[in-house]
Amino acid sequence: MQITTFRAFKSRNYRLFFYGQSASLVGTWMQKTAVSWVIYSLTHSTFMLGVSLFASQFPSFLLSMLGGVVSDRYDRFKVLLTTQVASMIQAGLLAVLIFANHYQVWEILTLSAVLGTINAFDVPARQSLVYEMVDDKNDLPNALALNSSMVNLSRLIGPAIAGIVLEKFGDPVCFLLNAISFLAVIGSLLMMRLPKYVKKVHKKNAFGEMKEGLRYIKRTPSILYIIIMLGLISLLVLPFSTLIPYYARDVFKGTASTFGVIDSFIGLGAFSGAIFLASQKPGANLKKILAINTLIFGAGLMLFSHEHFYPLALTFVTIAGFGMMSQITLSNTIIQTTVAQNMRGRVISLYAMAFFGMQPLGGLLVGAVSKWIGTTNTLLGEGVAALLIGLMHWRYLRKESLKAKHAALLEQPELHPA
Known about the structure:
By secondary structure, the chain is mainly alpha-helical. The protein is built from 14 helices and no strands. Helix 11 (286-305) runs antiparallel to helix 12 (310-336).
């Protein structure tokens, strides 16, 4: 039997990217865990956790379209190398701030906003460059699924390490290790052998190219629908992660390690989901899998929301992580395998806007609602929202299927009696 799960590794450039990015992402998740823990320890406020998410992701929403234009106009390799160096500097500044031990919440939020600004340019360039790293374009869906497995394996490992480091060595070491981890991805980028960049002539200015990208999305309803669905999930469901420190400290009476363990089990589920997606054969019905896994996501959150028995709660949050994975990976895969090459950066930037832009607004919404109806009921509501979005997507797919069947019947030649 041919093993197809890792077929994108046939491409040398992609292998280098995968290994370097894997090391860097472990550090990134360590920092994310440490930031959430530090802010919650300082404020004891789930609302401030939402503000933290807002600060780190809302700049990406504002600037992502510009980032997409930059990705389409300039050498994506140089753009990505620049953003990775900038991210390392941001992580270093955060480490210095925490080491100084005279930090305030606003300073952490400001540096989080700086990272969000960098990500606005990083995400379109990185996602678009994956297409160029893969030699056989039929392996692109596999490469994107493996990317997600990389992100979620790091989410599995990073928070667990962060929990231990926070307890044994303190907050500053987490931030320092993240800064050092960027050397791996920068090194892997410098080792790549990509086709020589050919400078293109652009007849329109950046604003004109933004408008062109928006018109293209409007003319492509299949991509527009996926982006709208992802936006709804990002606004109403994905911010559930901002409430996890409350469960670790107040529901399960735990410490930083408890928080790290819960986050790691979310990562375990997401990693399993990513491997499941990477194992799909070419031609699999990705839209149907997306609808089913959205329902699984909602069910997992609903079961976790009011569960007080820790082992069972970890089981339910793993199920939620499995379903969550499809929102990010399949949306990206469907878009990347549909979009025109000259529009890739701009369309991915709109995907990033839906993903990064709606989450911080959702974080503020979830933080405010949790003060009104309680954290556990808020998480239950997020699970219900995921179920409703999944059912809406299922209905859309049925309508599309009926349309296709109707069109096929109309195209059949009329049968005349002999």
